[in-house]
Design brief:
- By secondary structure, the protein is an alpha/beta fold.
- The strands form two sheets. The chain has a six-stranded mixed β-sheet, sandwiched between helices.
- Strand 3, helix 4 and strand 4 form a beta-alpha-beta unit.
- The longest helix is centred in the middle third of the chain and has 15 residues.
- It is globular.
- The structure holds pyridoxal-5'-phosphate (PLP).
- Pyridoxal-5'-phosphate (PLP) binds next to helix 9 and helix 13.
Length: 365
């Protein structure tokens, strides 16, 4: 029998896409089982949208419950390969949860800089549970990232694992590969939330690479969505004090701004904004009509799709949504942000521990 190596039996993205990633013989083949996430068919929302096919790429099914794991596994493996002592990141939450988990997995220390008081409870719990040193910076995400960049420049034994680290984008492009592998072709449209803009950059790279390798005969149009109170790319200038319920995309000056604009333009796509009300409506619809409980940032792209579907002129040219195969990227899990769910759902009804009381509360008497 083969000796267990400590890597996941399912391989993970380093194993599965080794020949398309900067993996060498010296790269530790880390895996917590990231990637291979489900592409789920819409059963109910599709009726409101009126498109040919609608799928949700459930990136919330990654080991730390967001897509960040795809790039983090590679960034941490490369940090270990380069003999870094520790990984360091600024984070609105999910990057720190993922960095903390993969650092623990590989035996590196993790330091995370989060904006003070602005990180969802579940994400903070993850970073703390994995033993990361959490520093709550009195400032916003953009301030924290600027400091993290300077720390790693001054102290190179701290490997910066934000998406300015090129290995993050490389790892994240594997999600586009999986969509094509599952569908046998690229979709027509990809709807995706945009925060620091690394993910839209990564998807575009993945779709272009697969197209060039003739794994797909076309490339999708990328339709990105920012929150109205944090929409620098839509407005064309940085936002000083970004505000939105969708904390994962509460970013005023995206690190991958230029490459996101390039992805938009080269794909013939768009980057638009949705309000917090639209985001929360989509968040509830997904949970109540599809059984998908995502975090608010993820719902931004579905909010965008609903808005798009309501606009007859949404698609230029002869096509209409009716002919389109659409994928929405569901980036993170709703359990990460229980505060938002509990602040807006109706509360539980208290009843006595008694059959008649329960029946009456259920409307059965
Ligand atoms: C990081 C994140 C985003 C935004 O991705 P970018 O690469 O920063 O644009 C969206 N949703 C969730 C849940 C995230 O964790």
């Amino acid at each position: 029998m083969e000796r267990l190596t400590g890597t996941s039996a399912t391989g993970g993205v380093l194993e599965r896409y080794r020949d398309r990633l900067p993996v060498t013989d010296d790269t530790p083949m880390l895996s917590l089982g990231e990637g291979g996430t489900p592409l789920v068919s819409s059963r109910r929302l599709i009726e409101r949208i009126g498109c040919k096919d609608l799928y949700f790429k459930l990136e919330m099914c990654n080991p730390t419950s967001s897509f960040k794991d795809r790039g983090m596994v590679l960034a941490v493996a490369k940090a270990a390969e380069a003999n870094a002592q520790a990984v360091l990141c600024a984070s609105t939450g999910n990057t720190s949860a993922s960095a903390a988990a993969y650092a623990a997995h590989s035996g590196l220390d993790a330091f995370v800089l989060v904006p003070h008081g602005r990180i969802a409870g579940g994400k903070l719990a993850q970073a703390v549970a994995h033993g990361a040193r959490v520093l709550a910076v009195r400032g916003n995400f953009d301030d924290a990232l600027a400091i993290a960049r300077r720390v790693s420049e001054k102290h190179p034994v701290f490997s910066l694992v934000n998406s300015v680290n090129p290995h993050r984008i490389e790892g994240q492009k594997t999600a586009a590969f999986e969509i094509v592998d599952d569908l046998g072709e690229a979709p027509d449209l990809l709807f995706i939330p945009v925060g620091n803009a690394g993910n839209i950059t990564a998807y575009w790279r993945g779709f272009v690479e697969y197209y060039q390798a003739e794994r797909a005969s076309r490339k999708p149009r990328l339709i990105g969505w920012q929150a109205a109170g944090a929409a620098p790319i839509v407005r064309g200038e940085p936002v000083d004090d970004p505000q939105t319920v969708a904390t994962a995309i509460r970013i005023g000056n995206p690190a991958s701004w230029e490459s996101a604009v390039a992805a938009r333009d080269e794909s013939g796509g768009e980057i638009n904004a949705v309000t917090d009300d639209e985001i929360l409506d989509a968040y509830h619809l997904l949970a109540e009509e599809e059984g998908i409980f995502c975090e608010p940032a993820s719902a931004a792209c579905v909010a965008g799709l609903l808005k798009y579907a309501a606009r007859p002129e949404a698609l230029e040219g002869p096509e209409s949504l009716r002919d389109q195969t659409i994928v929405c990227v569901i980036t993170g899990h709703g359990l990460k942000d229980p505060e938002t769910a509990l602040a807006t759902e109706t509360e539980a009804t208290e009843v006595d521990a008694d059959l008649a009381a329960v029946e009456s509360a259920m409307g059965l008497s």
